[in-house]
Amino acid sequence: MPIEHNNTFRLSTICIAIITIMTASIHTKVNAREFFDPAFISSVNGGDTSNIPDLSVYQSVNAQAPGDYRVDVVFNGRYLETKNVKFITDTRSNKLDKKLNLIPCFTLDVLSQYGVRVKSFPELKESEQGCSNFDIIPDSKTIFDFAAQRLDISVPQAAISTVANDYIPPEKFDDGINAMFVNYQFNGSQDYKSDNEYYSLNLESGINIGPWRVRNLSMWNKSKGESDHFDSAYLYLQRSLRSISSNLIIGESSSLSGIFDSVPFSGVQLATDTSMLPESMRGYAPVIRGIAKTNARVVIKQNGYQVYQTYVAPGAFEITDMYPSGGSGDLYVTVEESDGSRQNFIVPFAVLPVMLREKQFEYEITSGKYRPYVGTIDDTPFTQATAKYGLTSSATIFGGVQASAKYQALSSGIGYNLASLGALSADVTQAWSKKRYDDKTSGQSWRLRYGKNIIETGTNFTIAGYRYSTKGFNTLSEVLNTYAHDGYYYSGRSLRNRTNFTLNQSLGRAHGSVSISALVEDYWDNKRTNKSLSLGYNGGWRGINYYLGYSYSRYTWGIYSSSRESRNDQRVALTISIPLSNWLPNTYASYQITESSPGSTDQYVSVGGIALEDNNLDWNIQQGYSNREYYSGDIRGAYNGSRGSVSAGYSYDNNSRRFDYGANGSLIAHADGITLGQNISNAAVLIKAPGLDNVRLSSDSTIVTDGRGYAIVPYITPYRSTDITLDSTSFGEEMELMQTTQRVVPTRGAIVRTNYAGNIGLRAFIHLKTPSGREVPFGAMVTLSGAAKSQASIVSDAGMVYMTGLQPTGVLTVSWGKKAGQQCTAIYTLSAGQKKNSGVSQAEALCR
User: Fold this and answer.
1) What per-residue confidence (pLDDT) applies to 838?
2) CA distance 605 to 593
3) Which residues, other chains included, contact 769 with Cβ-Cβ below 8 Å and sequence gap of 6+?
4) What 8-state DSSP symbol labels residue 712?
5) Which of 186, 187, 218, 188 is closest to 203 using CA atoms?
6) What is the DSSP secondary-structure string of 569-581?
7) How far does Cα 20 stand from its chain's mean position?
8) Labelling 416: which of 513, 547, 618, 827 has CA 20 to 30 A away?
9) From CA 800, how far away is CA 765, in angstroms rounded?
10) 10 Å Cβ neighbour count for 608?
11) How far apart are CA 491 and CA 494, in angstroms?
12) What is the model's pLDDT at position 237?
């Protein structure tokens, strides 16, 4: 057993050496600097000094080798990013002390991105290696914590630009890869009782080439016994203009609202893109609430187009994932009940109040032809221009102009911050118009808008507004619609009064919240009036949630008095949801009762929840009864996978026996092939991780890489920094990734690719020996020959090295110095029988 005795002797030698050094350091005080003498390793390597590796760089305290290190960059105490930073040896180090400190190598552009006022320091220059002389800034310093892989940068406040804390420099915006994509949403239903079938398909397609985007939304639907119908909602070319924080659109879209009503057009639009601003300076999205008395279909239209559709169960519902397309504009909601009845109401949607920060400027210029929603109309060019400016920290002025051959309008207004009283805006619009068959008219429209959050009481006035228009006032759309070729659009109605109000009131954490919304509007020409009121209370007790709501709506339709119809609809609903997690994980039971006029009472009991390991499956079973001898039942499920979603359900009642189904998702065609995923929103990430198949995203377990290592993250917010992290717990035994997180900042509509290069292969402890029978020297560096990027490993004191990303057989390159005889290569072979329970193999290899 000579080898075992030799190892014991070597270990004893090390222990004696360490004890001697510690004793000397305790009892001896000298003025010499501390250093590590590589000669001590000779005892480990059998006393052969030729086998001592070159470790001179480590002779200084806390010294490390120069090179690229992946570090967390912290600027003045605020985390900025994780990135690879090049570190060089500080040539200013004390040569007498021979301390070899590392300093980061930053270009002037990087310093500028971090907020340093580079132009204020003319002495700042870059070396031939691209490293700036950062130290010329007074009182600036960097601290590299090698153990924590953290780089702290400290710069005096006087040398930093004043920006928002969440500001992201435009240089970091990523336009993504060239690609094509399609979002698809298919729905089908078959009613066996009425022998009716219905199919619909929405396709949102796009092409990305550099910063340019092509977008189209097409819709197809067909009912049994009827011809199919195809329509295109819009087709446009778009790109972001970072230098002026603006968005350019060429094609079919809608003008922005806020000052004027949104108008569909075919032409050109250039407008400020507020999404490029920091999060602290941006807007909001609408929430749709209502009450359904049966299994119902909810359809939402905006600017004449259907922008959202879903099926809801009886009782109160809330829609939070709807994003209106083509700018702002009122949302027209229709609840189609399974008994054939309908409920219609309007949800006002606008950005209120119109307040900007001091000296902030926003604009829009739109020019083109008016684009009708249905049918054809006389080609009518028009131009719209609007602007808003933060005059002071409290006041914002705004205004605009609309001009065409048949319509002209001027608008101006002011918004004012009333401090603790909230914010108020007032504006007036003067319009001159010529409707078909009518004389020229003119009129004014006056509007007041108010918004307020009362933090102390938990009160939120989301929108409170009032508009009054004189009899001669018309909007651009009302005038141009009268010139339809088939007369379809002609209407004499003109809005007279409109009042809307929305309030949310918190009653404290233990007492729930109350919401109120109301709308009243009437018209000059035909005495048409629309009213709606919604009251709701949400609360909870020991995991049991409940909702009590009341809604009233009066919606009148029809142009002429003889054909005008109106309907009053009142409903009261109570919903109670009880968790069953103590008996069935992720399961709940609910009871709903709805009282609607005239004298109808509907009751429903349901059980539902989520299932499967990654919570991919949503399911629900429901049974309902009514005092109108009405009954209903419903069972449905939806599977949300990484390649898309599918759903199916069966429902029945007195009038129907319906089976419905659907599928939605996305497809991206890129340089490496085709990848399937969930529906893509404003921006997306394409994960590229070759060899890392079936790996989950840490933030969403439903997103999993495919067999090639690709996946789509579909919901990235444009111009926002987002970390994409792979879940290391889902890695297989032969997967190892040094970097599991990458940060992206996509532009609007971008598809950004993140590349993950891991060590894919076997893991092994390899015992390396020289032809003389000795172990390879301690501290030797080992890499995998032929690998594009091989992480270097260090040999331990027993000639052992841990390697990853190995094939069953291969070649290792070993080096412990630059002299002759200090390099060798070893051929290794791994077999299945050598693998331990931990998944790590063991092998021996001869290094020649």
Assistant:
1) 64
2) 9
3) 775, 776, 799, 844, 845, 846, 847
4) E
5) 218
6) EEEEEEEEEEE-T
7) 60
8) 513
9) 6
10) 20
11) 9
12) 97
Cα–Cα dist 238/215, whole Å: 8
* Residue 149, amino acid: Q
| Strands 751-755 and 683-688, sheet pairing | parallel
Residue 575 has what pLDDT? 94
Structure-block tokens of residue 147: 């153990």
Q: In the structure encoding, which two tokens stand for residue 775, read together?
A: 């172990």
The first and second tokens of residue 363, run together, are 């604009």
| DSSP tag of 21 | H
What is the side-by-side strand order in the sheet with 793-794?
793-794, 781-784, 809-815, 823-829
Task: Say if CB 575 and CB 293 are below 8 A apart.
Answer: no
Tell me which residues of the chain have a pLDDT lower than 70: 1-63, 91-100, 162-166, 279-287, 303-305, 313, 320-330, 348-353, 373-375, 419-420, 453-463, 486-493, 525-526, 557-566, 788-790, 832-838
What pLDDT shows up at residue 179?
A: 97
Q: Which of 538, 86, 640, 39 is nearest to 287 (CA)?
A: 538
Q: How far apart are CA 660 and CA 795, in angstroms?
A: 64
Distances (CA, A) of 169 to 109, 173, 253, 472: 11, 8, 29, 49
Q: Are 164 and 278 in contact (CB under 8 A)?
A: yes
Residue 64 is predicted with a pLDDT of 73
Structure tokens at 108: 């002037």
**What tokens were used for 428?**
């007036």
Distance CA 509, CA 405 (A): 57
What single-letter amino acid sits at 70?
Answer: R
Domains and CATH numbers, the chain: 2-59 (no CATH), 67-162 (3.10.20.410), 175-226+636-754 (2.60.40.2610), 760-846 (2.60.40.2070)
The amino acid at 363:
Y
